[in-house]
Amino acid sequence: MSTVTSLIDKYYNADTFPRSLGIELLELAPGYARMAMTINKNMTNFHGIGHGGAIFTLADTALGLASNSRGDTAVALAITINYLKPARIGMQLIAEAREEHLTRHTGLYRINIASSEGETIAVAQGTVYRMDKKG
Amino acid sequence: MSTVTSLIDKYYNADTFPRSLGIELLELAPGYARMAMTINKNMTNFHGIGHGGAIFTLADTALGLASNSRGDTAVALAITINYLKPARIGMQLIAEAREEHLTRHTGLYRINIASSEGETIAVAQGTVYRMDKKG
Amino acid sequence: MSTVTSLIDKYYNADTFPRSLGIELLELAPGYARMAMTINKNMTNFHGIGHGGAIFTLADTALGLASNSRGDTAVALAITINYLKPARIGMQLIAEAREEHLTRHTGLYRINIASSEGETIAVAQGTVYRMDKKG
Amino acid sequence: MSTVTSLIDKYYNADTFPRSLGIELLELAPGYARMAMTINKNMTNFHGIGHGGAIFTLADTALGLASNSRGDTAVALAITINYLKPARIGMQLIAEAREEHLTRHTGLYRINIASSEGETIAVAQGTVYRMDKKG
User: Fold this and answer.
1) A77/D127 touch (CB, cutoff 8 Å), yes or no
2) ipTM value for the complex
3) Domain with A58 in it: what CATH number?
């Protein structure tokens, strides 16, 4: 059985793209992850606000850690994101991914993305496929 | 009426986050955009393949250009992405965003993300809200 | 300003398709609706369980009432439903639609569909477009 | 190996809810189904047009037949529908479900819902989970 520490080594430390964006892990538990990212001036779109891809990356990263946190390999099949408010430069975003449902082969996760003041910026939900254990 | 050249200046050249990932504009027309991105070693997840957030960013960028290509401001409300195959390091991805439907206030776009060999990696669809013209 | 009673006349009593399925209104408030439907033997699919279309209809009906409950006309643009557990014949389903976000022109709603024992059967989220008031 | 005729008996003839709405099967092939439904006055919402649940039921029924057409059992995990135009009373709708991707355990289908004159009314996409064969 993996410990949370070894999961952090295996998943968070090896998650190259999110780390390049400064995404931090705040909390990890079975079926749950909470992560943070600050929108900097390299993460904007042509409207001058946080790019949808950067916000999605934070959500997807939290989903990836939450859904792999039980030690089995899970991959995202489908994710829907709803954008509610713009994320301005300098804003710290917190994503919380929670498991809503789990079967042997599939899982459903809901991700809330809010500013550190608690204002919801986006919500997402993702369906994952859980691969068979190799042994 | 904006020309394609001025649209490129206004949108693509000002799209900071995608440019930081090396995303290139291949073609832009009203309601349509085609863009390319090569998965490099900084864009991977803990499985060692292209991160879902990087692939989504390419799709979202193509959606943003296609939906703003008519000169009005459009913002994404909801996007669903389906991941079909892993994108390996070194793979060049091509995203094509096409307008499926347009009303005065909303639009629907479909985005296909394929390898340069034509293998579909992911598909997405996005609903945008078109803001009123300022003048 | 419409009263809840007149909203029920205007919306629930005129909602022909849901009424043909026996869908009942349990509670209506601004941005909120709770409705019930019992899966009967005419609502099954070829697996002998509640058809996805019947379950969706309950969710969509709750979304329609919740999003029109403020007196303005709202129409659904995009809805995503996730099916979690089968609904068996005779099961009473309760759908609760809650407003998660509202702007002048758009709204986001989350719908939970559970058995009367509280077991979640499906979850959905819908984006609506709010039309301009006529006067 | 099942023949198309036995699939029609097993699936379409046993699909109780769609049959109660008069949904007809026009064509069935591996990974593909085309079906028809006419919006009648019992299928409307409080706006007096075809209810989103009735339109979704047509789409979901086509998805169910297409995804089960290979002889294995498939169940929908997540479906997203985008409504583009109202469906008026008397309008015949044609839904075409096509397989976009298939792995051993999952499948992605795209469903187009159009009037018999070819005007697109809604589009949907569904992710299914394919259960293991029993033998």
Assistant:
1) yes
2) 0.94
3) 3.10.129.10
